[in-house]
Specification:
Distance between the termini: 43 Å
Keywords: Isomerase, Magnesium, Metal-binding, Phosphoprotein
Family: Belongs to the phosphohexose mutase family.
Radius of gyration: 22 Å
Strand content: 15-25%
Shape: globular
Organism: Streptomyces chlorus
Protein name: Phosphomannomutase/phosphoglucomutase
CATH superfamily of the largest domain: Alpha-D-Glucose-1,6-Bisphosphate, subunit A, domain 3
Helix content: 25-40%
Structural class: alpha/beta
Cofactor: Mg(2+)
């Protein structure tokens, strides 16, 4: 029976409800299709702590092996640990995770050798078409000789590699509260932070894909509340929160106040530029703060503005040879990590920066957090194109205002800017606004929302 995968094959990955939208039989076909499209003789797979992940990952491995491909399984891992394996082994990879989505969901993040991204324009469309064809006509013909499936441990090597990329020798003793959200941070953090002069206060390190304490999505402020309270109670120097597959890291300061991902991007950019002699290209998406390109230029670097989304960031990093990239969503990309994103490496940079001086984190990041921002505000709308057209009509032709359509619509003035862009997967428009002061930001934000919401 033919299946329609349009609801689960997204722009950058596969994601859907198990077993309603996909199951192990489809995972096996995805494995075979991945083998065909990449043309690889060997691949590497890993999975998160969700109850469905081992079965889906194993089925994918069977499908690939039936096509004659040797499969290295690294088992439980974070997404950036899978990227490490793909990079260091120079193999295409498949990570089974639904990141921060609820427990019923699962998915696959795919990459080519060296952690190069796979998205709709770089192989995912072909993979989807093969799986749909085979689901109707039957499984593909097996290779004359099946591939092997072997296990390999990578956690210690992954942790050592990350620590080799940050100078942690002069870090003073710090107390850090870490909220793993019952996700893969509970697996990786103990190894990565081992041996550092840190008192780690663990929260929700137990691997549990039902997420009993809160969603493993630190982008939602509600999911930071426990961490913020614990940082204050412990008198800690900072708090770190990871999402379900531990590829994103959010930071709170010693007061329990969230540090914007733009400020972290600027901080890490300044450190990576210093590591590279004060030269290099830094990628930032178009809704990071004005602070980011300013700090990059102040530290001798060249900022490059891109669309939102890891496939665009990674492609631009590869094209430009950028040393670092950051997004508002707390994805951080490093040239020395195969241009892939790793929140854990960003966390090490924060620890090194804070521990290398005597001040507080709030004082340290103040220099990188210069403007008033709205954060991302989502609005459900019936006709996204009509709403975007209404915004354009409202601002086009005004003195001192420019418009661009790199990603959605960005409206920029001397003292403020805002961007409105459609969601890839939902009937939403996403608004981000920033200004030189809070009053102006509030005015511009509300003006834009009035038009968006009709």
């Amino acid at each position: 029976m033919a299946v329609d995968l349009s609801q689960i094959v997204k722009a950058y990955d596969v994601r859907g409800i198990v077993p309603d939208q996909w199951d192990e039989s489809l995972a096996e076909l995805f494995g075979a299709a991945f083998a065909r499209v990449t043309g690889a003789s060997a691949i590497v797979t890993g999975h998160d702590m969700r109850s469905s992940s081992p079965g889906l990952s194993g089925a994918f491995a069977r499908g690939a092996a039936a096509q004659g491909v040797d499969v290295t399984e690294i088992g439980l891992c974070s997404t950036d640990q899978l990227y490490y394996a793909s990079g260091t082994l120079d193999l295409p990879g498949a990570m089974f995770t639904a990141s921060h989505n609820p427990a019923r969901y699962n998915g696959i993040k795919l990459c080519r050798a060296g952690a190069a991204p796979v998205g709709q324009d770089t192989g995912l469309t072909e993979i989807r078409e093969l799986v749909e064809k085979w689901s109707e006509s039957g499984a593909p013909e097996s290779a004359a000789t099946a591939g092997t499936v072997t296990r390999r441990e990578t956690l210690d090597d992954y942790a050592a590699h990350l620590r080799s990329l940050v100078d942690l020798t002069s870090v003073r003793p710090l107390k850090a509260v870490v909220d793993a959200g019952n996700g893969m941070g509970g697996h990786t953090v103990p190894s990565v932070l081992a041996g550092l002069p840190l008192t780690v206060v663990p929260m929700y390190f137990e691997l549990d894909g039902s997420f009993p304490h809160h969603e493993a999505n630190p982008l939602d402020p509600a999911n930071l509340v426990d961490l913020q309270q614990r940082v204050r109670e412990e008198g800690a120097d900072l708090g770190l929160a990871f999402d379900g597959d531990a590829d994103r890291c959010f930071v709170v300061d010693e007061r329990g106040e969230p540090v914007s991902p733009s400020a972290i991007t600027a901080l890490v950019a300044s450190r990576e530029l210093a590591r590279n002699g004060g030269k290099g290209t830094i990628i930032h998406n178009l809704i990071t703060s004005w602070s980011v390109p300013e700090v990059v230029e102040e530290n001798g670097g060249t900022p490059v503005r891109t669309r939102v989304g890891h496939s665009f960031i990674k492609a631009e990093m590869a094209t430009s040879g950028a040393i670092f990239g950051g997004e508002h969503s707390a994805h951080y990309y490093f040239r020395d990590f195969w241009n892939a994103d790793t929140g854990m490496l960003a966390a090490l940079h924060v620890l090194a920066a804070l521990g290398g001086q005597q001040g507080t984190l709030s004082a340290l990041v103040d220099q990188y957090d210069r403007y008033a921002g709205s954060g991302e505000i989502n609005s459900t709308v019936d006709d996204r194109s009509a709403r975007l057209a209404a915004i354009r009509a409202a601002y086009e032709g005004r003195d001192g205002i420019t418009l661009d359509e790199l990603d959605g619509l960005t409206v920029t003035a001397a003292d403020w800017w805002f961007n409105v862009r459609p969601s890839n997967t939902e009937p939403l428009l996403r608004l981000n606004a920033e200004a030189r002061d809070q009053a102006t930001m509030t005015r511009i934000r509300d003006e834009a929302l009035t038009i968006i919401r009709g």
